[in-house]
TrEMBL record:
SUPFAM superfamilies: Cytochrome P450 (SSF48264). Residues 1-25 form the signal peptide. GO terms for biological process: organic acid metabolic process; xenobiotic metabolic process. GO terms for cellular component: endoplasmic reticulum membrane. This is unspecific monooxygenase. Its main location: endoplasmic reticulum. Its cofactor is heme. It is found in: Endoplasmic reticulum membrane; Microsome membrane. It comes from Cervus elaphus hippelaphus (European red deer). Keywords: Endoplasmic reticulum, Heme, Iron, Membrane, Metal-binding, Microsome, Monooxygenase, Oxidoreductase, Signal.
């Protein structure tokens, strides 16, 4: 009996915590359908034809809306005009990437592939400048690469 009561209390507290977390982030996100605790909006979407489901939701909530996949909120841009405005007119605000915890832990936010924001811009600028100094984009590097490839092929032929 005590185990059942403890299990019900834990389940209720998890549901309340889930509801509280979803409500606390609501002010920053665009409107969307009300998510269920833990499940989100997954029951409201047709998983086999998700584009049709998102089109229906865009008719109700507009071209920019929020859908929860589990407890993770996802902002959906539906339609050419919304995507064009986001990527062209507001390109700087939408230039960031999602956070991948495993890559974040391994690289500590550094590197070219998984970095983000100001760090990514600095790394990209440095990488392009360094590659140009080595001859990227110049005709001379092609000749050097071909010469090295010829030497490598000759060495491989000698070893049969």
């Amino acid at each position: 009996m005590d185990l059942a009561v403890a299990l019900v209390l834990c389940l209720c507290s998890l549901l309340l915590l889930s509801l509280w977390k979803q409500r606390s982030g609501k002010g920053k996100l665009p409107p969307g359908p009300t998510p269920l605790p833990i499940l989100g909006n997954i029951l409201q979407l047709d998983v086999k034809n998700i584009s049709k489901s998102l089109t229906k939701l865009s008719k109700v909530y507009g071209p920019v809306f929020t859908v929860y996949f589990g407890m993770k909120p996802t902002v959906v841009l539906h339609g050419y005009e919304a995507v064009k405005e986001a990527l062209i007119d507001l390109g700087e605000e939408f230039s960031g990437r999602g956070i991948l915890p495993l890559a974040e832990r391994a690289n500590r936010g550094n590197g070219i592939l998984f970095s983000n924001g100001k760090t990514w811009k600095e790394m990209r600028r440095f990488s392009l400048m360094t590659l140009r100094n080595f001859g990227m984009g110049k005709r001379s590097i092609e000749d050097r690469v071909q010469e090295e490839a010829r030497c490598l092929v000759e060495e491989l032929r000698k070893t049969n």
